[in-house]
Amino acid sequence: DFLTFDRTVNYMDGKITFDGNIKINGNVESNVEIVCSGDIYITGYVEGARIKAGNDVIISGGVNGSDNCKIIAGHNVTSAFFESAKIEADGDIETGYILNCDVECHGELKTKGKKALLSANDKAKASPSNPNQEDTPIYLVPELLYPYFHKHQQP
C-alpha cells in the first residue's frame, strides 16, 4: 500500500501516519512528522522534520535540518547530503556528505560520489565488527579520515 503526496508537505499537514509506504513528490518542510511501517520516498529536500520508517528512508534531494530534524529508519537511510540533523539507521547510511550531524548506524556508513565529507563536528556511532562488543562512539576528524575515504570510496 502507498500513500502518495504530489506536492510539498508542510506544517499544515501536521503528523502523517500510515501503515505501508509513503511517497512524497516534493519537499518536506519544518514542523512535519511522518511515520510509516514501510518505506518513505521523498523526491525533494527535507528541512526540520521528524521522519520515522519501519524500513528504508530514501531522500532524492538532501537534508538541511537546522538542528531540528530527526530521521529514523528500521533499515537504511539514503540522501544526497545531511546537514544539522540526527540520523539513526538499523542498517546502512549512504550519502554524499555529512555536516554537523549526530549519526547512529548499525550497518555501514557509505559515502558516494567523487568527494566525501564528514565534518569535524559530526558524531557517529557505528556497530563494531565484533558483535560481543558494545557500540562505540566515533568522533570524526576529516584530516585523519581523508586518506581512508579517498582510498576506499566507491566509484
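That was protein one. Protein two is written in the same sequence-then-structure order:
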Amino acid sequence: RLLKADIGDAYAKAKRNRPPGYMRMARTIQEFDEDGMELLYELLTPLWGEHEAGFEWDIELHETLTSFGWRQVPGIPALYIFNGTDSSARLIKIVDDILFCESDTSTPIVNATLKALKDKYEQVTHEADPSAFAGFKITQSADYSVRKLSQPQKI
C-alpha cells in the first residue's frame, strides 16, 4: 500500500549548523530601539531560500528517520528501508515529501512512523493511495501489484 506525507515548514524545523544570520526588514516595517538604532532579526533556524538550508533539513530528516529504525539504502540517499517482524516498508524522500510503501495493507510501520513524525514536527499531513507525488503521476493496478510513476506532462 502507498501513502504519502508532507512535513510543513520543514526547513525551519532543522538545526542551523552555522552561525546565525541577520536580516534587515523592508523600510515600510523597520523597527528601531530607543536610541534610534535599526533592529535586525536574528535567524536561528534555516529558512527556505538559504543556500545551506536544504542540506541542514536533509541532515535533520535523515537523523530522525534513522532514530525511528529506518535504514538508508547504500548508494541511494533518498531511499530508506524498514524491516519489521511481520512487515517491511520502503520510503522515498524528496525534501519534505515522503512516499511510503508497505507490504502489510494495515501499514503498522508507516502508521508508527507518521505518529512519530507528527509528535516531533507537528505539521505533518498524509494521504493514503495517492494519485501523485512530487510532480509524478502514480498509477496502480487493481490488485496493487504494479505501480508506475510517470511525468506525462513532461513528454
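The first helix runs from residue 53 to 67. Keep this in mind for the problem set.
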